[in-house]
């Protein structure tokens, strides 16, 4: 029996990818490194430092670890400024209804996002109260496609992983869900998420009440 549903954040609950893009773009422009929306797709679900390294690959300068930390911090400050523009209207269609329907059915709800800003995003979207647990991305040693963040989320809910499902829009996330022993719902298609057990084009399609 289903006991818990674990949500990815970006691409599932809201589209923060555009705000990440704007913040990275400003940094890349300053550094004179080419960066566009297509390349930004590679950063989805990838943590902050790994994202920075992917961007710096396209430049010819070498940076020390301290320099890279400063660049990552600078991007994050800009990203957090941009998060102030986020409102409940930025929730993807059907998400609030789905969260409420799950709660009504006694199913526990957790967030399993690689973002260290996840709690802030949920606050801005006005859905913090609808989550029983938010996994701490900062405490995770192994990123998706490792299972760690999904296992932490299930543990935080107190629900056995085999009684949880995960919802993801990125293939690395789908692999992580499977490694955690859970069924994976993919927001996407057979082409974009070949390993997902079920596909929907939007969270609205998951609403049991619709
Ligand atoms: P932060 P998700 C991920 O969120 C984003 O997809 C990814 O682009 C971002 O770099 C990562 O969070 C880290 O975010 O800099 O806020 O810690 O899809 O796992 O919800
Ligand atoms: Mg995502």
TrEMBL record:
Highest taxon listed in the record's lineage: Bacteria
Family classification: Belongs to the HAD-like hydrolase superfamily. CbbY/CbbZ/Gph/YieH family.
Name of protein: Beta-phosphoglucomutase
Primary gene name: pgmB
Parent-protein residues present: 773 to 982 of 997
């Amino acid at each position: 029996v289903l006991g818990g549903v674990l949500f990815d954040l970006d691409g599932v609950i809201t589209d923060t990818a555009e705000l990440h893009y704007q913040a990275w773009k400003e940094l890349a422009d300053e550094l004179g490194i080419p960066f566009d929306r297509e390349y930004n797709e590679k950063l989805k679900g990838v943590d902050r430092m790994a994202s920075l390294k992917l961007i710096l690959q396209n430049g010819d300068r070498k940076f020390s670890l301290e320099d890279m930390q400063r660049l990552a911090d600078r991007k994050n400050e800009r990203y957090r400024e941009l998060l102030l523009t986020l409102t409940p209207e930025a929730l993807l269609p059907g998400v609030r209804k789905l969260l409420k329907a799950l709660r009504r059915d006694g199913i526990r709800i957790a967030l399993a996002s690689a973002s260290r800003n996840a709690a802030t995003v949920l606050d801005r979207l006005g859905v913090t109260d609808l989550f029983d647990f938010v996994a701490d991305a900062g405490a995770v040693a192994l990123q998706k496609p490792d299972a760690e963040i999904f296992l932490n989320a299930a543990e935080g809910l107190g629900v056995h992983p085999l009684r949880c499902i995960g919802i993801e829009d990125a293939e690395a996330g789908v692999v992580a869900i499977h490694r955690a022993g859970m069924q994976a719902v993919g927001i996407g298609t057979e082409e974009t998420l070949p390993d997902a057990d079920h596909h929907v084009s939007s969270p609205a399609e998951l609403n049991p009440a619709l």
